[in-house]
Design goal:
Elements lengths: L5 E6 L17 H19 L5 E6 L9 H16 L7 E5 L5 H14 L5 E5 L7 H11 L4 E5 L5 E6 L17 H11 L4 E3 L9 H7 L19
Parallel strand pairs: 1-2, 1-4, 2-3, 5-7
Antiparallel strand pairs: 4-6, 5-6
Length: 232
């Protein structure tokens, strides 16, 4: 593999009832799965517009659903189609490994860096307001720092980028708390890592987040008061 940057799309497989559970009861299980699907494909389309390969690292929730394998395969195919384009690089997909969110993120980054990438950014898949310019900013920030972080207003981060494995960044963290970003900055300082920032963006976790993204044409059907769309 060349030194082309890699962006890891860190996602769950959109099995109904297993994703975006905090959006209940505003959205049905099928609508939550469809929303997850649409947001992940949007991310893949945006990644195709920056000079980076795409590596999808997906969760294991598909294993616990009778239709899980079919949903997983269709989801990966949709992501590959969304990433296609004249500027797209290589595409690959694999299941996440590790016990706990931090361990899985660390393993995903180490895996891609171990394949020869000189820069690897990892992002979530529930980021409908992120655009190619934000990803380009993250790649640019990586040229001047050891660690790139994309802050979110809830105290966490939506993007993390490395040039080499940095397991201490992910050890014993309480993801979902309001102190995640500050804890990450403290670890970077303690280990002498230079940090640069991507733009601040927010993910979609709660019904109030649905109200925020209602202004985006692709997501108007997911407003809490709307009839839920049919699952893909």
């Amino acid at each position: 593999m060349s030194g082309r940057p890699v962006i890891v799309l860190f996602t769950r497989v959109p099995v109904a009832g297993a994703v975006k559970t905090r959006l209940a009861p505003a959205l049905s299980a099928d609508a939550r799965a469809r929303l997850q699907w649409e947001m992940a494909c949007d991310c893949a389309r945006h990644i195709a517009q920056v000079p980076a390969d795409l590596a999808v690292h997906y969760g294991d929730e598909w294993r616990r659903a009778p239709e899980g394998e079919a949903v997983r395969d269709a989801f990966i195919a949709s992501l590959k189609d969304a990433y296609a384009g004249p500027g797209a690089g290589s595409f690959r997909a694999r299941e996440q490994r590790g016990a706990g969110l931090g361990a899985r993120m660390q393993e995903a980054l180490a895996c891609e860096l171990g394949r020869g990438a000189d820069t690897c950014l990892l992002m979530g898949s529930d980021l409908p307001e992120v655009r190619p310019v934000d990803l380009a900013a993250g790649l640019a920030a990586a040229r001047t720092a050891d660690v790139v972080l994309g802050p979110s207003t809830d105290g966490g981060y939506w993007l993390v980028g490395l040039h080499e494995p940095f397991p201490q960044l992910f050890d014993h963290k309480s993801y979902g708390s309001a102190s995640v970003l500050q804890e990450a900055l403290a670890v970077c300082a303690a280990h002498g890592r230079r940090v640069a920032f991507a733009p601040t963006r927010d993910d979609v976790d709660t019904p109030s987040d649905l109200e925020r993204i209602e202004r985006l044409p692709a997501y108007r059907g997911f407003a809490p008061a709307s009839a839920p769309p049919t699952s893909a």
